[in-house]
Design goal:
Layout: E1 11-13, H1 17-20, H2 27-40, E2 45-46, E3 49-50, E4 52-55, E5 58-62, H3 63-72, H4 76-87, H5 103-148, H6 152-178, H7 184-196, H8 198-204, H9 218-227, H10 233-240, H11 261-269, H12 276-297, H13 302-344, H14 355-362, H15 372-383, E6 391-393, H16 398-403, E7 411-413, E8 424-425, E9 427-430, E10 433-441, E11 454-458, E12 472-477, H17 485-493, E13 497-499, H18 504-507, E14 513-517, E15 522-527
Parallel strand pairs: 6-7, 10-11, 11-12, 12-13
Antiparallel strand pairs: 1-5, 1-6, 2-3, 4-5, 8-15, 9-13, 10-14, 14-15
Length: about 525
Amino acid sequence: MWNDSTGTDALWTSANLGEAVPDVMTPATWSFVKAFMGDVMVGASLEGRPMYGNIGGRFYMNLSVTATLAAAFGQGRKFAQANELVFGRLPEGMTIPLLPASRVRVWRDTIGEAFAVMNRIRANGKQLPAFLEEAPERCEELRARVAAAATAGDLSALWESEVAPYFRRCCHMLQAATRQGGDSLVKVRGTLESLVGEQDADLMTTGLGDDGQLASMGPLLGLERLARGETDRDTYTRTYGHRGPHEFEVSLPRPAEDAQWIDRQLAALGTVEEDAALRLARQTTARAAAWDRLAAAHPRRLAGLRTAVDGWAASARLREAARTEVARVFWLLRTFVLRAGEVSGVGEDLFFLSRGEILALLGGDRTPLAAVPARRAAYDAYRALPTYPTLIRGEFDPQAWAADPNRRADLFDAQDTTPATDTVAGSPASGGVVEGTARVVAGVEEGEAIQPGEILVTTVTNIGWTPLFTRISAIVTDVGANLSHASIVARELGIPAVVGCGNATTRIRTGDRIRVDGGRGTVDVLEPAAETSDPA
């Protein structure tokens, strides 16, 4: 069993984490993800409960741990605001159950670690620019050396001396980048909404790539430059070949490992009526108008808010740049596992071992291999199930949930069996109203079916989906929040978006004519798709 939801009453969410790691994870991936989270999170566990966990092979955050930490340090209100931006709105009436830990005990267990981490963050923050400049070449060099390791001993020694320390350094650098101005958006966005409303606040916090490209937009803008002959294939591959929809699952190939990857993207780009450059120019005009409205209504607030938003934009670019290097280092980890499988003669069975077990195998201990058949069977069983609810409270059995004909796709609450409604609604992520034909897509691999101007309805998106955004007129997702990938890219391109609906992919069908109101966070089915009969 792979299930951290057992044994306590806690609220878990796959928002944010499920965007980065949308797949059922192999044991190798989970062991690397745990190491990553252990390096970047303060208070990774509390009262024996982890801040993050594996539920049926999927990656979840334990909101009860983070809320308990926030309450102990008097940050409950700030946590609630940040939680909505990062993880989405909780259903009406739902609260986050706190762990039974006293404030004094939480302080005792975490304050020493917190001070040590803050000192490390300050030191690493000063090194971030140099790290980001040298990281691509350093990671490529390590990948080549791992792939060339001749023996199990050589590979194990390389892991201990260089690969593992570099992986940890990347984790710490992302931690430092994430803390650069981390609270600024919560503050400035709240102020903007109170002064100009949610729609203008959305506009005024776009343009994050104007003074330096936002990594989320990179694959799309780079592809358009490639199509115009402003860059070449090798440069595009070196820059974006490690970014994709499955970039943290080490058992799956990176885009650069597919020889036809770029050709397929360029072919799809040729069907777009309006490229990203035109959409960005239109957003620039709309954003300037929003700032003009603020200046007219609150002239004394203009300069301070401009400075705050510019600071947030710089922080966002820094975080995304650091994250792209973490994605690159996960390609290095994939290369390591593949080479370990080659030198040990075990092959891809190693994806079903943990990091420690792989190292033990390289040292001559083949005992861990006995666990592979059962783990592979569990992995295949979990992959065969529907995507689990975004929110899970209490003990969750994935197979029992999937077998329930009345299951809810948005929420599982062991204490509340209230049936789901047919209403589709979520977080208002990007303003505007669009009516059009829905295209329900289970994964980015099905993206070629999307026709220009259709409304994309899917579970969750990440950077691997970005090149599809100029083909759609709106987006609706089951998982997401205001700072999710779909939200950020939709706002940058001026595409209406409603995210975190929970049930969109189960309530909407391809061919339905729907209305998406990105300002209100609602999705209405105007005309159901025509029924099709089986020709047979």
